[in-house]
UniProtKB/TrEMBL annotation:
The lineage of its organism: Bacteria, Bacillati, Bacillota, Clostridia, Eubacteriales. It holds the Pfam family LiaF-TM. The chain crosses the membrane at residues 12-32, 38-56, 63-79, 91-107. The keyword Membrane applies. It comes from the Bacteria. InterPro entries: LiaF_TM. Keywords: Membrane, Transmembrane, Transmembrane helix. This is LiaF transmembrane domain-containing protein. Residues 14-110 form the LiaF transmembrane domain.
Amino acid sequence: MERKSNDGRINPMIIGLLLIAAGIIWGGNALGLFQVSLFFRGWWTLFILVPCLYAIIKNGPDVPNIIGLIIGILLFLSARDILPNGTLGKLIIPVILIVAGAGMLIGKKR
């Protein structure tokens, strides 16, 4: 019997287990059995960080993914009040310029 490849797609079993876990957590919270919160200050930055990290791991580092990763980290630090107010806006453009310039220099050496 030949086994078909998964082609990088998520296994339906994993999705099923995640849905069951989410249902148990949600139901337990609703009934007051326990209190679990999946959300924390800056949780939304994971929508930037995770895809950039995945692309870097899968394809190697490139300028857009590194810029996205750094911006995601800066947004996370700002959401957690680790960066003082106003610092994020001052750092985004310099970070983009530095990473783009470094990418051009590294690209020339390859």
